[in-house]
Amino acid sequence: MSFINKVVLVTGAGSGIGQAISLQFAKYTARLSLVDKDEANLKKTGEQCQKLIRAKVLTTVAELRQEDDIKKAVANTKAEFGRIDIVVNCAGIYKPTSIFDSNLVELFDDVMASNLRSVVFLISCVVDELAETKGNIINITGQMRALGAFKGIAYQTVIAALEHLTTSLASDLAPKGVRVNSISPGVVKTNILENAGVKPEESEAFWNEASSSPLNKLVKTEDVAEFVTFLASDKARAMTGCTYSIDAGLGLSRF
Known about the structure:
Pfam families: adh_short_C2. InterPro entries: NAD(P)-bd_dom_sf, SDR_fam. The chain has helices at 16-27, 39-53, 67-81, 104-133, 153-173, 192-195, 200-210, 221-232; strands at 7-11, 31-36, 58-61, 86-89, 136-140, 179-185, 243-246. The protein is of the alpha/beta class. Helix 1 packs across helix 8. The protein has a seven-stranded parallel beta sheet, sandwiched between helices.
C-alpha cells in the first residue's frame, strides 16, 4: 500500500493507538496532519513520523472540546497541504462513571464533548474537502464492556453512539463517494486508565485479566494501526458503514 500525496489527519496522535496509527501512515509515506492536546507527546510523534517520511509533518496542539481548536487544526491542514483525504478520529478520554455519582451529568457531558461532539464537529468541518477528494473517515471506538470493571456509563454510551454515527454518516456520504467506517479495539494497554486516575495496581490487574482472552493476548496498538491503513486504502474501496472488531477474541468470551 502507498499513501503518497494522500493527506491524513489523525486526532489523538500523541500517544497510544493514535501514535501507532500516525507511525503506520508515515511508513506508507502519507502526508500527515497530527493533532493532540499534549504538546510534548505530539512533538515526539511528529519527530518520529518525520524521520520515516523524510518530509514535513504538521502538528497542531488542540483541545478538541473547543470548536476554535478544531477549526484551527483543519485550517492548518488545508493551508499546509491544500487538501484532506483521510480523517482518523482517535482522540478521547475515559472517566469512571456510575449512576450513583453525584456529579454524573458533569462527567457524562465531559466524556461526550471529548469523544463524540468533537468528532461530529470535526467531520462537519472537513466534509466538503472529503467529498472533493473522495476520501474516507475512520472512527476508533472500543469494546463496550472492555472497561466495565471501572464503571463505564459514559464510556459505553459514547462507543454505541460513535458506531451509530458511523452508519449514519456512511449513508449520508456514500452518494458523495466518501466512505465511513469504525474500528472497535478490544483491550489495548495504553495510558487511558492512568489518565483516568485508576490506581496502578487496579489497572495492572485489569491488563492481566484481559490478557486471558481466547487468544491469550492483549491487542497491540500496531494491530489496530495496520487495519486502519488497510481500511483507509483503495483495497477497502467497497467497505463502508461497518464497525470492525480487533479484540483477540474478547467478543467470544464473558470478559
